[in-house]
Automatic annotation (TrEMBL):
Keyword Zinc belongs to the record: no
Family per similarity comment: Belongs to the peptidase M17 family.
Pfam families reported for this sequence: Peptidase_M17, Peptidase_M17_N_1
Keywords attached to this entry: Aminopeptidase, Hydrolase, Manganese, Protease
Domain (Cytosol aminopeptidase): residue spans on this chain: 312-319
Top-level taxonomy: Bacteria, Pseudomonadati, Pseudomonadota, Alphaproteobacteria, Rhodobacterales
Keyword check for Repressor: no
Molecular-function GO terms, alphabetical: aminopeptidase activity
Protein name: Leucyl aminopeptidase family protein
Amino acid sequence: MPPEFGDPNAPTRPVWLVRQTTDGPQLPDAITEADAAWARAQGFAGRTGQICLLPDHAGGIVGALYGIGRESPRHHRERYVLATAAEKLPAGNWRLANQPAGFDPALGALGWLFAQYRFARYKKAEPASAHLVCPEGVDAKRISALAEGEFLVRDLINTPASDMGPAQLEQAARDLAARHGAQISVITGDELIARNFPMIHAVGRAGAEPPRLLDLRFEGRGPRVTLVGKGVCFDTGGLDIKPASSMALMKKDMGGAANVLGLADTLARLGMTRDLNLRVLIPAVENAISGNAFRPGDILTSRKGLTVEINNTDAEGRLVLADALALADEEAPELLISMATLTGAARVALGPDLPPFFCDDDAVAAAMQAAGMAHADPVWRMPFWNPYETMIEPAIADLDNAPGGGFAGAITAALFLRRFTGKARHYLHFDIYGWQPSAAPGRPKGGAGQGMRAILNALPELLK
């Protein structure tokens, strides 16, 4: 069910956006006195998401008032202010009849499209019935591309591991490459050993499907940008097995892979890959249990040559990312970004809705955080805190994949990954959740994109 705007040539009904104030709703002058009286009689106050349908004399609906709340940012609790309108207005074509001060029509249109998402692979779902004609001055192609990328992420994460293992994730990458004319190569199974990706192989060799490394290239004219996404299609925890309650959502442990594919899809739809030399790397594995599973206490040698002591097989995401990052860094890209559902510590620190990112460059970090806030895709900077480097240095190997003590888990994971970079001009790591734990307007419970629009909109600043 792709996102779609309403037909501008078909009949439409107006929806007036109404601010809430201490003196009551700011009803538009364009509505009649009778409509204003009707709204007051219905108790319409302009609260965010509040709807008042306007009737005609025959009992039909001629328009609607829709509350967008107070203008003060401190009252903005809904990320996508028009999403509830998309979900609750009657079927048909709707157009914005006004745009109050402080209202962002592009973000409003995006929220409306996001609300059209349905995951209908296994259960029938009614399609969206209320459609918005793209507001004047809004780039419909851009908003549609953003929504398409988000829908792809949601679909990939929502699909269970029975239908989204390493082979199916590879097919999703191949479909994206075919759709946009990108090149793709895949290294599978024991070939990973021959091609020097030992940690990807070690983590994935016990899975029902062979591990693999997906490598997509969009050959553009511009600077090198490489995206690396964690593709752990299911995570049992390995021999350090998770409890059942912690395993329930592990189909989403490929959320980093889903997000970099969604971002690449969006960039391609917008034509931005023509001006970038874009590469996408995804180590796709299952962290499973079998006789050949890697063990606690094992020492693995990475692609970069650094040795890693395994103190917890459930800290596997950083291992597969490390080999992929080492490969990416060999080309010395201008911008290297990793995205992963990596640590519970990040969720404890910032919750599921605000993913942290790590970056050594203050100007780059400021541009990223500003872009996220401006485009309703918030991210929050956390530090590569150098004094914690000793925490990831065990006695008998170069690195420890799971330092004890329970402190600074997101930071030590990020420091571990940074050890496999160094040639890239800028390196950023995003520790995302990739999941909406409870439904919100425009964001149904389930898989979620995080950081994609922040990255996309920050790119001009990041590549200066």
